[in-house]
Protein backbone atom coordinates (compact mmCIF):
# COMPACT_ATOMS: atom_id res chain seq x y z
CA UNK A 1 0.00 0.00 0.00
CA UNK A 2 1.26 3.47 -0.84
CA UNK A 3 0.55 6.49 1.28
CA UNK A 4 0.62 10.04 0.13
CA UNK A 5 -0.69 11.99 3.09
CA UNK A 6 2.80 12.62 4.36
CA UNK A 7 5.97 13.49 2.44
CA UNK A 8 4.04 13.91 -0.77
CA UNK A 9 6.03 16.87 -2.04
CA UNK A 10 9.05 16.66 0.22
CA UNK A 11 11.16 14.83 -2.33
CA UNK A 12 11.20 17.68 -4.90
CA UNK A 13 14.53 19.38 -5.51
CA UNK A 14 13.83 23.08 -5.18
CA UNK A 15 16.53 25.21 -3.48
CA UNK A 16 14.42 25.03 -0.33
CA UNK A 17 14.30 21.23 -0.44
CA UNK A 18 18.07 20.97 -0.82
CA UNK A 19 18.85 22.81 2.40
CA UNK A 20 20.17 20.97 5.40
CA UNK A 21 17.22 20.32 7.78
CA UNK A 22 18.89 22.10 10.69
CA UNK A 23 19.14 25.42 8.88
CA UNK A 24 15.51 25.15 7.82
CA UNK A 25 14.38 24.31 11.34
CA UNK A 26 16.25 27.27 12.82
CA UNK A 27 15.20 29.71 10.09
CA UNK A 28 11.53 28.76 10.13
CA UNK A 29 11.39 28.78 13.92
CA UNK A 30 12.94 32.25 13.89
CA UNK A 31 10.41 33.45 11.34
CA UNK A 32 7.54 32.00 13.33
CA UNK A 33 8.73 33.61 16.55
CA UNK A 34 9.13 36.91 14.69
CA UNK A 35 5.56 36.64 13.40
CA UNK A 36 4.36 36.06 16.96
CA UNK A 37 6.28 39.12 18.13
CA UNK A 38 4.98 41.62 15.57
CA UNK A 39 3.22 44.41 17.50
CA UNK A 40 -0.48 44.52 16.62
CA UNK A 41 -0.31 48.16 15.45
CA UNK A 42 2.35 47.54 12.77
CA UNK A 43 0.15 46.23 9.99
CA UNK A 44 2.87 46.82 7.40
CA UNK A 45 5.06 44.16 9.01
CA UNK A 46 2.35 41.54 8.53
CA UNK A 47 2.36 42.36 4.86
CA UNK A 48 6.12 42.05 4.68
CA UNK A 49 6.08 38.64 6.33
CA UNK A 50 3.24 37.52 4.17
CA UNK A 51 5.20 38.64 1.14
CA UNK A 52 8.34 36.77 2.31
CA UNK A 53 6.29 33.64 2.91
CA UNK A 54 4.78 33.93 -0.55
CA UNK A 55 8.26 34.16 -2.08
CA UNK A 56 9.37 31.06 -0.15
CA UNK A 57 6.22 29.28 -1.33
CA UNK A 58 7.11 30.18 -4.90
CA UNK A 59 10.67 28.94 -4.53
CA UNK A 60 9.52 25.70 -2.93
CA UNK A 61 7.58 24.48 -6.02
CA UNK A 62 4.98 22.93 -3.72
CA UNK A 63 1.64 23.42 -5.55
CA UNK A 64 -0.42 26.29 -4.15
CA UNK A 65 -3.61 24.20 -4.28
CA UNK A 66 -1.95 21.61 -2.06
CA UNK A 67 -0.88 24.25 0.48
CA UNK A 68 -4.38 25.76 0.47
CA UNK A 69 -5.86 22.29 0.98
CA UNK A 70 -3.73 21.87 4.07
CA UNK A 71 -4.73 25.30 5.35
CA UNK A 72 -8.41 24.41 4.88
CA UNK A 73 -7.98 21.30 7.01
CA UNK A 74 -6.61 23.32 9.94
CA UNK A 75 -8.78 26.40 9.36
CA UNK A 76 -11.68 25.29 11.59
CA UNK A 77 -9.32 24.99 14.55
CA UNK A 78 -7.91 28.45 13.95
CA UNK A 79 -11.38 29.94 13.66
CA UNK A 80 -12.40 28.21 16.88
CA UNK A 81 -9.30 29.41 18.68
CA UNK A 82 -9.88 32.93 17.42
CA UNK A 83 -13.50 32.96 18.49
CA UNK A 84 -12.48 31.71 21.91
CA UNK A 85 -11.06 35.17 22.66
CA UNK A 86 -14.00 37.48 21.89
CA UNK A 87 -12.91 40.14 24.41
CA UNK A 88 -10.17 41.20 22.00
CA UNK A 89 -12.63 43.01 19.75
CA UNK A 90 -12.51 43.03 15.97
CA UNK A 91 -8.99 44.23 15.11
CA UNK A 92 -7.49 42.01 17.78
CA UNK A 93 -9.28 38.96 16.42
CA UNK A 94 -8.26 39.72 12.87
CA UNK A 95 -4.61 40.09 13.92
CA UNK A 96 -4.79 36.82 15.85
CA UNK A 97 -6.24 35.13 12.78
CA UNK A 98 -3.58 36.52 10.44
CA UNK A 99 -0.80 35.56 12.83
CA UNK A 100 -2.10 31.99 13.02
CA UNK A 101 -2.45 31.69 9.26
CA UNK A 102 1.08 33.01 8.72
CA UNK A 103 2.56 30.54 11.21
CA UNK A 104 0.55 27.77 9.65
CA UNK A 105 1.81 28.59 6.16
CA UNK A 106 5.40 28.61 7.40
CA UNK A 107 4.94 25.25 9.10
CA UNK A 108 3.31 23.72 6.04
CA UNK A 109 6.21 25.00 4.00
CA UNK A 110 8.76 23.54 6.39
CA UNK A 111 7.14 20.12 6.61
CA UNK A 112 6.55 19.83 2.89
CA UNK A 113 10.03 20.80 1.81
CA UNK A 114 11.73 18.41 4.24
CA UNK A 115 11.25 14.68 4.40
CA UNK A 116 9.94 13.69 7.80
CA UNK A 117 13.02 11.58 8.40
CA UNK A 118 15.28 14.55 7.63
CA UNK A 119 13.24 16.72 9.95
CA UNK A 120 13.80 14.21 12.75
CA UNK A 121 17.49 14.13 11.98
CA UNK A 122 17.59 17.92 12.10
CA UNK A 123 15.85 17.99 15.47
CA UNK A 124 18.28 15.41 16.77
CA UNK A 125 21.33 17.34 15.60
CA UNK A 126 19.97 20.51 17.15
CA UNK A 127 20.04 18.78 20.50
CA UNK A 128 16.36 17.90 20.86
CA UNK A 129 16.09 15.16 23.54
CA UNK A 130 16.62 11.76 21.92
CA UNK A 131 13.61 10.21 23.63
CA UNK A 132 11.34 12.82 22.03
CA UNK A 133 12.81 12.36 18.56
CA UNK A 134 12.56 8.58 18.90
CA UNK A 135 8.90 8.86 19.89
CA UNK A 136 8.22 11.01 16.85
CA UNK A 137 10.00 8.51 14.65
CA UNK A 138 7.90 5.66 16.07
CA UNK A 139 4.83 7.77 15.40
CA UNK A 140 5.92 8.21 11.81
CA UNK A 141 6.83 4.55 11.33
CA UNK A 142 3.68 3.11 12.86
CA UNK A 143 1.26 5.63 11.43
CA UNK A 144 1.43 3.61 8.22
CA UNK A 145 1.17 0.23 9.91
CA UNK A 146 -1.85 1.38 11.91
CA UNK A 147 -3.51 2.95 8.88
CA UNK A 148 -3.15 -0.33 7.02
CA UNK A 149 -4.54 -2.27 9.94
CA UNK A 150 -7.51 0.08 10.11
CA UNK A 151 -8.06 -0.20 6.36
CA UNK A 152 -8.06 -3.99 6.54
CA UNK A 153 -10.56 -3.90 9.40
CA UNK A 154 -12.77 -1.58 7.40
CA UNK A 155 -12.61 -3.94 4.42
CA UNK A 156 -13.50 -6.89 6.61
CA UNK A 157 -16.48 -4.96 8.00
CA UNK A 158 -17.64 -3.92 4.54
CA UNK A 159 -17.41 -7.51 3.31
CA UNK A 160 -19.76 -8.75 5.98
CA UNK A 161 -22.49 -6.21 5.86
CA UNK A 162 -25.15 -5.43 3.35
CA UNK A 163 -26.47 -1.90 3.21
CA UNK A 164 -26.32 0.45 6.16
CA UNK A 165 -27.11 -0.42 9.71
CA UNK A 166 -29.05 2.04 11.91
CA UNK A 167 -26.88 4.87 13.21
CA UNK A 168 -26.62 3.42 16.72
CA UNK A 169 -25.44 0.09 15.30
CA UNK A 170 -22.88 1.85 13.11
CA UNK A 171 -21.51 3.63 16.15
CA UNK A 172 -21.31 0.35 18.04
CA UNK A 173 -19.35 -1.31 15.24
CA UNK A 174 -17.05 1.69 14.94
CA UNK A 175 -16.31 1.77 18.65
CA UNK A 176 -15.51 -1.93 18.79
CA UNK A 177 -13.21 -1.48 15.79
CA UNK A 178 -11.41 1.34 17.54
CA UNK A 179 -11.09 -0.79 20.67
CA UNK A 180 -9.62 -3.67 18.71
CA UNK A 181 -7.18 -1.33 17.02
CA UNK A 182 -6.08 -0.01 20.40
CA UNK A 183 -5.49 -3.49 21.78
CA UNK A 184 -3.61 -4.55 18.67
CA UNK A 185 -1.37 -1.49 18.86
CA UNK A 186 -0.72 -2.23 22.48
CA UNK A 187 0.31 -5.80 21.69
CA UNK A 188 2.42 -4.62 18.80
CA UNK A 189 4.22 -2.18 21.07
CA UNK A 190 5.12 -5.07 23.36
CA UNK A 191 6.47 -7.19 20.51
CA UNK A 192 8.37 -4.22 19.20
CA UNK A 193 9.95 -3.61 22.59
CA UNK A 194 11.03 -7.28 22.67
CA UNK A 195 12.63 -6.76 19.27
CA UNK A 196 14.46 -3.69 20.60
CA UNK A 197 15.69 -5.60 23.64
CA UNK A 198 16.83 -8.44 21.41
CA UNK A 199 19.06 -6.05 19.55
CA UNK A 200 20.80 -4.87 22.66
CA UNK A 201 18.64 -1.87 23.58
CA UNK A 202 19.34 -0.90 27.17
CA UNK A 203 17.24 2.21 27.65
CA UNK A 204 19.42 4.70 25.87
CA UNK A 205 19.17 5.56 22.20
CA UNK A 206 22.42 5.53 20.24
CA UNK A 207 22.51 7.55 17.06
CA UNK A 208 24.68 7.59 14.00
CA UNK A 209 24.67 10.95 12.21
CA UNK A 210 27.37 12.33 9.97
CA UNK A 211 27.11 16.12 9.63
CA UNK A 212 26.85 18.07 6.41
CA UNK A 213 26.39 21.82 6.52
CA UNK A 214 27.07 23.83 3.39
CA UNK A 215 27.34 27.43 2.15
CA UNK A 216 23.73 27.13 1.01
CA UNK A 217 22.61 26.71 4.58
CA UNK A 218 24.74 29.58 5.76
CA UNK A 219 23.25 31.82 3.07
CA UNK A 220 19.70 30.85 3.87
CA UNK A 221 20.17 31.20 7.61
CA UNK A 222 21.82 34.58 7.40
CA UNK A 223 19.17 35.67 4.90
CA UNK A 224 16.37 34.77 7.29
CA UNK A 225 18.14 36.39 10.24
CA UNK A 226 18.81 39.54 8.24
CA UNK A 227 15.16 39.75 7.20
CA UNK A 228 13.92 39.43 10.77
CA UNK A 229 16.38 42.01 12.11
CA UNK A 230 15.57 44.39 9.28
CA UNK A 231 11.81 44.19 9.73
CA UNK A 232 12.13 45.00 13.39
CA UNK A 233 14.56 47.83 12.78
CA UNK A 234 11.98 49.48 10.53
CA UNK A 235 9.79 50.06 13.57
CA UNK B 1 32.46 -31.83 28.90
CA UNK B 2 31.08 -30.83 25.54
CA UNK B 3 30.63 -27.12 25.07
CA UNK B 4 27.04 -26.50 24.04
CA UNK B 5 25.85 -23.47 22.13
CA UNK B 6 22.54 -23.64 23.99
CA UNK B 7 21.76 -25.72 27.04
CA UNK B 8 18.23 -25.46 28.39
CA UNK B 9 17.35 -27.28 31.60
CA UNK B 10 13.88 -27.75 33.05
CA UNK B 11 12.54 -24.56 31.53
CA UNK B 12 8.95 -23.66 32.43
CA UNK B 13 6.90 -20.59 31.61
CA UNK B 14 3.40 -19.57 32.59
CA UNK B 15 1.66 -16.62 30.95
CA UNK B 16 0.39 -13.87 33.25
CA UNK B 17 -3.16 -15.20 32.75
CA UNK B 18 -2.15 -18.61 34.12
CA UNK B 19 -1.83 -20.53 30.83
CA UNK B 20 1.14 -22.87 30.86
CA UNK B 21 3.21 -22.15 27.75
CA UNK B 22 6.32 -24.20 28.47
CA UNK B 23 6.78 -27.15 30.82
CA UNK B 24 9.97 -29.01 31.70
CA UNK B 25 11.86 -28.20 28.51
CA UNK B 26 15.32 -29.80 28.24
CA UNK B 27 17.23 -29.03 25.08
CA UNK B 28 20.93 -29.09 24.19
CA UNK B 29 22.19 -27.66 20.94
CA UNK B 30 25.77 -27.93 19.68
CA UNK B 31 27.63 -25.05 18.01
CA UNK B 32 26.93 -24.98 14.28
CA UNK B 33 23.87 -27.21 14.54
CA UNK B 34 20.71 -26.32 12.60
CA UNK B 35 17.67 -27.26 14.58
CA UNK B 36 14.04 -26.94 13.53
CA UNK B 37 11.29 -26.57 16.10
CA UNK B 38 8.00 -27.81 14.69
CA UNK B 39 4.60 -28.24 16.22
CA UNK B 40 1.03 -26.97 15.96
CA UNK B 41 0.14 -23.33 16.59
CA UNK B 42 0.24 -22.49 20.27
CA UNK B 43 2.74 -25.25 21.00
CA UNK B 44 5.12 -22.76 22.62
CA UNK B 45 7.66 -22.46 19.81
CA UNK B 46 7.79 -18.65 19.75
CA UNK B 47 7.75 -18.49 23.54
CA UNK B 48 10.77 -20.78 23.65
CA UNK B 49 12.66 -18.56 21.20
CA UNK B 50 11.98 -15.47 23.33
CA UNK B 51 13.75 -17.22 26.22
CA UNK B 52 17.00 -17.69 24.32
CA UNK B 53 18.08 -14.10 24.94
CA UNK B 54 16.20 -13.44 28.14
CA UNK B 55 13.34 -11.34 26.77
CA UNK B 56 11.07 -13.66 28.74
CA UNK B 57 12.13 -14.87 32.15
CA UNK B 58 10.97 -18.01 33.86
CA UNK B 59 11.87 -21.04 35.95
CA UNK B 60 14.69 -23.32 34.91
CA UNK B 61 18.10 -22.47 33.55
CA UNK B 62 19.55 -21.48 30.20
CA UNK B 63 23.22 -21.58 29.31
CA UNK B 64 24.45 -19.83 26.20
CA UNK B 65 28.00 -20.62 25.06
CA UNK B 66 29.06 -21.73 28.54
CA UNK B 67 27.65 -18.79 30.48
CA UNK B 68 24.44 -18.92 32.51
CA UNK B 69 21.81 -16.47 31.36
CA UNK B 70 20.90 -14.08 34.17
CA UNK B 71 20.22 -10.39 34.57
CA UNK B 72 23.92 -9.57 35.00
CA UNK B 73 25.00 -10.75 31.55
CA UNK B 74 21.90 -10.04 29.48
CA UNK B 75 23.72 -7.56 27.22
CA UNK B 76 26.52 -10.07 26.61
CA UNK B 77 24.01 -12.80 25.76
CA UNK B 78 21.99 -10.56 23.44
CA UNK B 79 25.18 -9.87 21.54
CA UNK B 80 25.49 -13.59 20.89
CA UNK B 81 21.87 -14.55 20.31
CA UNK B 82 19.97 -12.86 17.49
CA UNK B 83 16.21 -13.26 17.11
CA UNK B 84 14.27 -12.87 13.89
CA UNK B 85 10.63 -12.07 14.64
CA UNK B 86 7.70 -13.29 12.63
CA UNK B 87 6.25 -9.89 11.73
CA UNK B 88 8.87 -7.56 10.20
CA UNK B 89 6.71 -4.62 11.26
CA UNK B 90 7.60 -5.46 14.85
CA UNK B 91 11.26 -5.66 14.06
CA UNK B 92 11.69 -2.65 11.80
CA UNK B 93 10.83 0.33 13.95
CA UNK B 94 13.17 2.97 12.54
CA UNK B 95 12.34 5.43 9.76
CA UNK B 96 14.91 4.04 7.32
CA UNK B 97 16.54 0.72 6.50
CA UNK B 98 19.98 2.06 7.46
CA UNK B 99 18.87 3.13 10.92
CA UNK B 100 17.16 -0.18 11.53
CA UNK B 101 20.20 -2.22 10.57
CA UNK B 102 22.50 0.13 12.53
CA UNK B 103 20.33 -0.03 15.66
CA UNK B 104 21.89 -3.26 16.99
CA UNK B 105 25.56 -2.44 16.33
CA UNK B 106 25.12 1.05 17.87
CA UNK B 107 23.74 -0.55 21.01
CA UNK B 108 26.76 -2.84 21.08
CA UNK B 109 28.98 0.28 21.06
CA UNK B 110 30.49 -0.46 17.67
CA UNK B 111 32.60 2.63 16.79
CA UNK B 112 30.57 5.04 14.58
CA UNK B 113 33.20 4.93 11.85
CA UNK B 114 32.59 1.24 11.41
CA UNK B 115 28.78 1.45 11.27
CA UNK B 116 28.36 1.94 7.49
CA UNK B 117 30.63 -1.04 6.79
CA UNK B 118 28.66 -3.20 9.22
CA UNK B 119 25.36 -2.18 7.67
CA UNK B 120 26.65 -2.82 4.17
CA UNK B 121 27.93 -6.26 5.09
CA UNK B 122 24.73 -7.24 6.91
CA UNK B 123 22.59 -6.14 3.97
CA UNK B 124 24.82 -8.11 1.58
CA UNK B 125 24.64 -11.20 3.81
CA UNK B 126 20.85 -10.97 3.71
CA UNK B 127 20.95 -10.73 -0.08
CA UNK B 128 20.20 -7.01 -0.31
CA UNK B 129 21.86 -4.09 -2.02
CA UNK B 130 23.40 -1.23 -0.01
CA UNK B 131 21.51 1.23 -2.22
CA UNK B 132 18.27 0.46 -0.38
CA UNK B 133 19.61 1.87 2.90
CA UNK B 134 17.75 5.17 2.67
CA UNK B 135 14.36 3.63 1.88
CA UNK B 136 11.55 3.61 4.43
CA UNK B 137 10.36 0.27 5.74
CA UNK B 138 6.76 1.01 4.85
CA UNK B 139 7.68 1.27 1.19
CA UNK B 140 9.23 -2.20 1.07
CA UNK B 141 7.58 -5.44 0.02
CA UNK B 142 7.10 -8.15 2.64
CA UNK B 143 9.96 -10.19 1.15
CA UNK B 144 12.29 -7.19 1.38
CA UNK B 145 11.13 -6.38 4.87
CA UNK B 146 11.81 -9.92 6.03
CA UNK B 147 15.33 -9.71 4.59
CA UNK B 148 15.98 -6.29 6.11
CA UNK B 149 14.88 -7.74 9.47
CA UNK B 150 17.37 -10.54 8.94
CA UNK B 151 20.07 -8.00 8.06
CA UNK B 152 19.23 -6.08 11.24
CA UNK B 153 19.89 -9.24 13.23
CA UNK B 154 22.97 -10.28 11.25
CA UNK B 155 24.50 -6.82 11.79
CA UNK B 156 25.02 -7.83 15.41
CA UNK B 157 27.09 -10.81 14.19
CA UNK B 158 25.32 -13.32 16.44
CA UNK B 159 26.71 -16.83 16.94
CA UNK B 160 23.22 -18.19 17.59
CA UNK B 161 20.25 -17.18 15.49
CA UNK B 162 16.64 -17.93 16.44
CA UNK B 163 14.01 -17.45 13.74
CA UNK B 164 10.25 -17.41 14.09
CA UNK B 165 8.43 -18.50 10.93
CA UNK B 166 11.00 -16.95 8.55
CA UNK B 167 9.18 -18.05 5.38
CA UNK B 168 5.56 -17.35 6.32
CA UNK B 169 3.51 -15.35 3.81
CA UNK B 170 6.35 -15.14 1.28
CA UNK B 171 5.76 -15.85 -2.38
CA UNK B 172 7.74 -18.80 -3.83
CA UNK B 173 10.56 -16.70 -5.27
CA UNK B 174 11.12 -14.69 -2.10
CA UNK B 175 10.82 -17.85 -0.04
CA UNK B 176 13.46 -19.63 -2.10
CA UNK B 177 15.73 -16.61 -1.91
CA UNK B 178 15.41 -16.44 1.85
CA UNK B 179 16.03 -20.19 2.21
CA UNK B 180 19.22 -19.80 0.18
CA UNK B 181 20.31 -16.93 2.39
CA UNK B 182 19.56 -18.93 5.55
CA UNK B 183 21.41 -21.98 4.21
CA UNK B 184 24.52 -19.85 3.73
CA UNK B 185 24.61 -18.58 7.33
CA UNK B 186 27.38 -19.76 9.62
CA UNK B 187 25.60 -19.23 12.95
CA UNK B 188 23.93 -21.95 14.97
CA UNK B 189 20.32 -21.88 13.77
CA UNK B 190 17.12 -22.54 15.67
CA UNK B 191 14.12 -22.22 13.38
CA UNK B 192 10.54 -22.38 14.60
CA UNK B 193 8.30 -23.04 11.62
CA UNK B 194 5.36 -24.77 9.96
CA UNK B 195 7.25 -24.86 6.66
CA UNK B 196 8.40 -28.49 6.72
CA UNK B 197 10.00 -28.28 3.28
CA UNK B 198 12.21 -25.51 4.68
CA UNK B 199 13.07 -27.83 7.57
CA UNK B 200 14.02 -30.63 5.14
CA UNK B 201 16.17 -28.19 3.18
CA UNK B 202 18.03 -26.56 6.04
CA UNK B 203 17.87 -28.48 9.30
CA UNK B 204 19.43 -31.85 10.05
CA UNK B 205 17.78 -32.08 13.45
CA UNK B 206 14.17 -31.48 14.41
CA UNK B 207 12.46 -30.97 17.74
CA UNK B 208 8.72 -31.53 17.95
CA UNK B 209 6.78 -29.43 20.45
CA UNK B 210 3.14 -29.59 21.47
CA UNK B 211 1.34 -28.17 24.51
CA UNK B 212 4.54 -26.59 25.81
CA UNK B 213 6.49 -29.85 25.93
CA UNK B 214 9.05 -31.58 23.73
CA UNK B 215 7.64 -34.83 22.31
CA UNK B 216 10.39 -35.88 19.95
CA UNK B 217 13.93 -34.82 19.14
CA UNK B 218 15.97 -36.41 16.38
CA UNK B 219 17.06 -36.65 12.79
CA UNK B 220 14.82 -34.57 10.53
CA UNK B 221 13.95 -37.01 7.74
CA UNK B 222 13.15 -39.89 10.02
CA UNK B 223 10.89 -37.75 12.19
CA UNK B 224 9.03 -35.95 9.44
CA UNK B 225 8.39 -39.27 7.64
CA UNK B 226 6.74 -40.72 10.75
CA UNK B 227 3.09 -40.28 9.71
CA UNK B 228 1.65 -41.39 13.03
CA UNK B 229 3.76 -38.98 15.07
CA UNK B 230 3.08 -36.11 12.66
CA UNK B 231 -0.67 -36.56 12.70
CA UNK B 232 -0.83 -36.99 16.44
CA UNK B 233 0.57 -33.47 16.78
CA UNK B 234 -1.47 -31.74 14.11
CA UNK B 235 1.23 -31.92 11.43
CA UNK B 236 1.52 -33.81 8.19
CA UNK B 237 4.29 -35.67 6.36
CA UNK B 238 5.75 -33.28 3.76
CA UNK B 239 4.81 -34.08 0.16
CA UNK B 240 8.38 -34.60 -0.94
CA UNK B 241 8.82 -37.36 1.63
CA UNK B 242 5.50 -38.96 0.70
CA UNK B 243 6.56 -39.09 -2.94
CA UNK B 244 9.76 -40.89 -1.93
CA UNK B 245 7.75 -43.33 0.19
CA UNK B 246 5.26 -44.26 -2.52
CA UNK B 247 7.61 -44.11 -5.47
Question: Could you please describe the fold and organization of this structure?
Answer:
The complex is a heterodimer of chains A (235) and B (247). Chain A is mostly helical. Chain A has 2 domains: 15-124 and 211-233, no CATH class; 129-198, no CATH class. Chain A is 74% helix and 0% strand. Chain A has helices at residues 15-18, 21-37, 43-60, 64-83, 89-113, 116-125, 130-159, 167-198, 215-233. In chain A, helix 6 (116-125) packs antiparallel against helix 7 (130-159). Chain A is globular. The N and C termini of chain A lie far apart (53 Å). With 247 residues, chain B is of the alpha/beta class. The radius of gyration of chain B is 18 Å and the shape is globular. Chain A binds chain B through residues 2-3, 116-117, 120, 137-138, 140-142, 144-145, 188, 191-192, 194-202, 206-208, and chain B through 50, 53, 55, 75, 78-79, 81-83, 85, 87, 89-96, 99, 102-104, 106-109, 112, 115, 136-139, 152-153, 156.
Residue share in helix of chain B: 25-40%
Helix/sheet category of chain B: alpha/beta
The amount of beta strand of chain A, in percent, is under 5%
Helical stretch tally of chain A:
9
At CATH level 3, the topology of chain B is Rossmann fold
Instruction: Please identify which CATH superfamily of chain B we are dealing with.
Output: P-loop containing nucleotide triphosphate hydrolases
The CATH class of chain B, by name, is: Alpha Beta
Radius of gyration of chain B: 18 Å
Q: With helices defined by DSSP (H or I, 4 residues minimum), what is the helix count of chain B?
A: 11
Looking across the biggest beta sheet of chain B, what order are the strands in? 6-7-8-3-9-10
Shape by Cα distribution of chain A: globular
Low-confidence stretches of chain B: none
End-to-end Cα distance of chain B: 44 Å
Amino acid sequence: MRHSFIDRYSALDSPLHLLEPRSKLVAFTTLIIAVLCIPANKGILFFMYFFATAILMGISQVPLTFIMGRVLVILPFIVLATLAAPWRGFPGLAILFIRAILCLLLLILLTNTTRFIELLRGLRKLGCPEILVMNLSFLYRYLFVLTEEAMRMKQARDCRRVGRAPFREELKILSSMLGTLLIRSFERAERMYSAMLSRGFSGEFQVYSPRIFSWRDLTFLSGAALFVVMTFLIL
Amino acid sequence: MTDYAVRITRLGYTYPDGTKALEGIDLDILPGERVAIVGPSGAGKSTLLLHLNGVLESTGSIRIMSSNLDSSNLQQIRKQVGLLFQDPNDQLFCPTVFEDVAFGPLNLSVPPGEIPRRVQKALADAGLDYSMRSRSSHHLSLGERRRVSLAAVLAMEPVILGMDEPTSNLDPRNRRHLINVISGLKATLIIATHDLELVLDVCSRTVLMDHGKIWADGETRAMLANAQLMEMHGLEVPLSLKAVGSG
